[in-house]
């Protein structure tokens, strides 16, 4: 007997199939020939922050990578371990030739909260090890906002994490090359899920401004 959650997913697939596989010109007739998204979104695995839902994107419009705290690790040679996020970035930039990369951070990020609270310091924890990527973000936040309460520090660190990932993107040779050729643009976006607002990082002012 399938449980109720699985039955909901199957019912959802039926609606999806009806929308995108039926009619005179089904969308997947075109998508079955290949994909050509213009934008890569690197988002968080948080169930409340689905890039396709937030952007109302149709299938085929965005290439998506999701991980804990929407982090981008700094570049390192491919032979030094396994690099899922790096591989996805390479494929998007080199093969798909996306024109935009968006780092999509959000309010109430569990990974950032654990980092700020100094939780999960177990060296055998995958999450703890992964969140070391954002250590610089926490350091930058504390330099500017040590006086704030915990919740506000988390919010500021969530934004700093986006900036850190943007900087890490620039350590990839193929990203730098695409930026120099002006065929690629980088954006940092923060989704405040408590207020239903989006903020964009302004590199000139080093601040996030609300998008209307």
What does this structure look like?
- This protein has 212 residues and is of the alpha/beta class.
- It has helices spanning 4-20, 27-31, 51-55, 84-95, 110-117, 126-131, 135-145, 150-169, 173-180; strands spanning 39-44, 62-67, 100-106, 185-192, 197-202, 207-211.
- Strand 5 (197-202) and strand 6 (207-211) form a beta hairpin.
Notable features of this structure?
212 residues, alpha/beta, Beta-carbonic Anhydrase, Chain A, six-stranded mixed sheet, 9 helices, 43% helix
Brief write-up:
With 212 residues, this protein is α/β, with parallel strands linked by helices.
List the helices and strands and how they pair.
Elements (H helix, E strand, L loop, with lengths): L3 H17 L6 H5 L7 E6 L6 H5 L6 E6 L16 H12 L4 E7 L3 H8 L8 H6 L3 H11 L4 H20 L3 H8 L4 E8 L4 E6 L4 E5 L1
Parallel strand pairs: 1-2, 1-3, 3-4
Antiparallel strand pairs: 4-5, 5-6
Give the strand content.
15-25%
**Contiguous uncertain segments of 5+ residues:** none
What does the average pLDDT come to? 96
Order of helices and strands: HHEHEHEHHHHHEEE
CATH topology title of the largest domain: Beta-carbonic Anhydrase, Chain A
- The proportion of residues forming helix, as a percent range, comes to 40-55%
Structural class: alpha/beta
- Can you count the beta strands? 6
Q: What's the level 1 CATH class of the largest domain?
A: Alpha Beta
Global geometry: globular
Number of alpha- plus pi-helical segments = 9
Give the strand line-up of the largest sheet. Answer: 2-1-3-4-5-6
- Based on the coordinates given, report the CATH architecture of the largest domain: 3-Layer(aba) Sandwich
The CATH homologous superfamily of the largest domain is termed Carbonic anhydrase
